[in-house]
Amino acid sequence: MMALFAIILFNSLRRYTFGKSLAWGEELPVFLAIYGFMFGAAYAYMQDRHVRFTILITFLPKHLIARLYMLLDILMVVIGGFMAWSGWQFVLKRGGMETSALISVAKDVRDATGWDWIVWMGHLYPYQAAMILGGVMLSVAALLKFMERGLEREWVAGPNASGARPVEG
Fold first, then answer.
1. What is the rounded CA–CA span in Å between residue 143 and residue 93?
2. Residue 122 has pLDDT above 80, yes or no
């Protein structure tokens, strides 16, 4: 996110002081923001700090709310899987396309350094792969949250789940 901010700030200052911005300075922040969103969504899900509307569920009993959240966790595992799959399909179909602004920079760097591998930065697939990574991370986060919620439930691993009596001290 700091790189995103720095690129936008630099490009804005350049545009308003010199009247010309960098061509890649408009496109690269969009791609960086996609990665930032994907990492942020999984991180927020793990912390249970994502956006949700709880006005209706506040009227439900607590045991139903816990089961509802667990159901939503399983749905998010599936949705994350679909997102990763659709990202994979997107990369297969359009990943080889060149980005309009970044390909010239990538080719200039290749010509200046002799690094042929740098040209991949000018194609769409490294940026479209954010959907794959984000979907996998969201699925893993939701699965971990489901397991955490399940372990917190007394019916799964309560104080008497093992049949042992609590030790009195």
1. 29
2. yes
